[in-house]
């Protein structure tokens, strides 16, 4: 057996001691910097912790401090990269699995220990000394105890460190996942953290004697459990996440049940939440509300929601597909072709990189890698078909009636009302207001870039609405002019029909018992110059006048009642 020289043993010992001193020094400096709660100092502390983890990659205190510092700096993506093995959807299968299956396996060790500690012991107490007997031997005192108490305290001491190592991971990662828009994962992680904290508190209280209680602070500088304020904030965040997920589930259920108006209401409640929504989660809600708007026939509203979703996440495949379908529905074929070509570029990038877009821990529930080749082939065929339609002259035949949401042959007030509502809602100046309601993390682009994208897409939609209003108003004015012309022609035809059915007047001129033909010309001219009476009772008037004046009264036989 080979022997190690004393000099080599001293060198190894010196190397280990020097590394331990460096690690302890870095940890002390990092804690002092983090205690200041200033962004620059916390960023410097992250650098020190990175150097500490180079010397000791599995040091639990350094890992916890680094994760909490990244969370304080709002570098949520770095937190997820650091603790991605604890993300439920990533553990199940890279985002393809469900959350419910993983929720029961997140804290197996913690649940086992909590069950072991909280379950009642069936073994009776074995008293080594009688309860009422005590004896003193100098300064020593012996008190009664049981084997079960000794075993229980021993198990608490063994499981304390394992729970301490796992508990902060779920709490910090749950908050990071919430800010990243992974609400289901955040809910499971925060529930697990709360369950582990409750189990740890029960074990701490059980492990102590009847008249003493332990605090949360650990003896080794770490934290045995989060402070109460952090647990309270995590509980409030968990309540908010549950409320948001219930609202979205109600919206999806209403849309599946054929109630798009109800789905729009629920999605709007989610998007107008007082607490800022993460950008990626808000983009998915905008896509869902766009589908509900399309089901109600409000295509302009649906296109506007797709524009907002794409300004938040330009590489969102569901948003691109939805907007391309909407443009094709209103026959805006050039815009549809542009979105489909962008979608083709994304599919090519996925096949080139052999992975879905984004980090590996982000879930893609409506997209699977094995479906990309078939989707790409169908997309290429659709692009070729659209190019053929545009070459045939269908590119400028936009259905503005469907875009604005009015019927064909609508009146002027209907068109003006619909146009006014859409214009007030989709002005380019108001298109960037939604950016202030959402929360954008470090994995998003600059806010100005998001605003510019939203303003540009809103300007395109606004120009389409103005052009559609002008086109439909021209058609409405032409219809009104044609209606007036038809009314005039109908009136003229009625007058012509009345004149065609008129009969020549029959007059009997009696003057002194002689007819006009045989009488004097003076009597005939006087009878001809006499005014002609026209009315309902013209015959009676003529008869009465003839009897009274003994002279003929000229009468027009029109519209007689008898």
TrEMBL record:
Which positions carry the signal peptide feature in this UniProt record?
none
For this protein, the record's InterPro entries field holds: J_dom_sf, TPR-like_helical_dom_sf, TPR_rpt
- Keyword Repressor present in the record's keywords: the answer is no
Query: What organism, scientifically named, is this protein from?
Result: Ensete ventricosum
According to UniProt, the name of this protein is J domain-containing protein
User: Top-down, what is the taxonomic lineage of the species of origin?
Assistant: Eukaryota, Viridiplantae, Streptophyta, Embryophyta, Tracheophyta
Q: Where would I find the TPR repeats?
A: 283-316
Report the PROSITE patterns cross-referenced here: TPR (PS50005)
Q: Which UniProt keywords apply?
A: TPR repeat
SUPFAM superfamilies for the chain? Chaperone J-domain, TPR-like
Q: Which Gene3D superfamilies match?
A: Tetratricopeptide repeat domain
User: What domain of life does the native source organism fall in?
Assistant: Eukaryota
């Amino acid at each position: 057996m080979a022997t190690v020289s004393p000099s080599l043993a001293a060198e190894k010992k010196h190397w280990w001691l020097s590394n331990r001193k460096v690690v302890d020094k870095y940890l002390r400096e990092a804690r002092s910097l983090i205690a200041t709660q200033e962004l620059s100092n916390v960023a410097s502390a992250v650098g020190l912790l990175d150097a500490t983890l180079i010397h000791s990659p599995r040091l639990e205190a350094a890992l916890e401090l680094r994760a909490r510092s990244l969370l304080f700096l709002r570098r949520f993506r770095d937190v997820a990269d650091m603790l991605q093995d604890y993300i439920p959807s990533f553990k199940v299968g890279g985002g393809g699995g469900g959350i419910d299956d993983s929720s029961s396996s997140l804290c197996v060790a913690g649940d086992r220990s909590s069950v072991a500690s909280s379950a009642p012991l069936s073994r009776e107490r074995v008293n080594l000394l009688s309860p009422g007997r005590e004896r003193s031997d100098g300064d020593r005192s012996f008190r009664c105890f049981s084997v079960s108490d000794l075993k229980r305290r021993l198990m608490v001491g063994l499981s304390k460190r394992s729970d301490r190592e796992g508990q902060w991971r779920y709490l910090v990662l749950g908050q990071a996942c919430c800010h990243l828009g992974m609400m289901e994962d955040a809910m499971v992680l925060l529930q697990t953290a709360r369950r582990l904290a409750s189990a740890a508190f029960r074990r701490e209280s059980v492990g102590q004697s009847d008249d003493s209680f332990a605090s949360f602070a650990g003896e080794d500088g770490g934290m045995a459990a989060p402070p109460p304020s952090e647990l309270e904030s995590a509980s409030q965040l968990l309540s908010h996440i549950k409320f948001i997920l219930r609202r979205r589930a109600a919206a999806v259920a209403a849309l599946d049940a054929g109630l798009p108006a109800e789905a729009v209401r629920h999605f709007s409640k989610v998007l107008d939440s007082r607490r800022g929504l993460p950008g990626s989660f808000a983009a998915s809600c905008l896509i869902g509300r766009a589908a509900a708007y399309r089901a109600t026939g409000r295509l302009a509203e649906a296109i506007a929601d797709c524009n907002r979703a794409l300004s938040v996440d330009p590489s969102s495949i569901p948003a691109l597909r939805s907007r391309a379908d909407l443009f094709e529905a209103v026959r805006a074929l050039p815009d549809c072709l542009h979105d489909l070509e962008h979608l083709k570029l994304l599919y090519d990038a996925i096949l080139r990189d052999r992975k879905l877009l984004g980090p590996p821990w982000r879930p893609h529930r409506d997209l699977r890698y094995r479906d990309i080749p078939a989707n790409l082939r169908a997309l290429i065929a659709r692009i070729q078909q659209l190019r053929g339609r545009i070459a045939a002259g269908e590119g400028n035949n936009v259905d503005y009636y469907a875009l604005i949401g009015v019927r064909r042959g609508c009146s002027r007030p209907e068109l003006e009302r619909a146009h006014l509502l859409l214009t007030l809602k989709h002005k380019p100046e108001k298109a960037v207001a939604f950016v202030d309601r959402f929360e954008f993390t470090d994995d998003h682009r600059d806010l100005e870039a998001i605003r510019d994208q939203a303003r540009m897409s809103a300007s395109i939609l606004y120009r389409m609405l103005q052009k559609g209003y002008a086109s439909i108003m021209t058609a409405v004015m032409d219809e009104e002019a044609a209606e007036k012309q038809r009314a005039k022609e109908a009136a003229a035809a009625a007058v012509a029909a009345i004149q065609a059915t008129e009969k020549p007047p029959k007059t009997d001129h009696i003057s002194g018992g002689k007819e006009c033909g045989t009488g004097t010309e003076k009597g005939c001219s006087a009878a001809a110059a006499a005014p002609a009476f026209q009315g309902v009772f013209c015959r009676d008037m003529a008869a009465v006048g003839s009897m009274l004046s003994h002279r003929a009264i000229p009468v027009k036989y029109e519209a007689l009642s008898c």
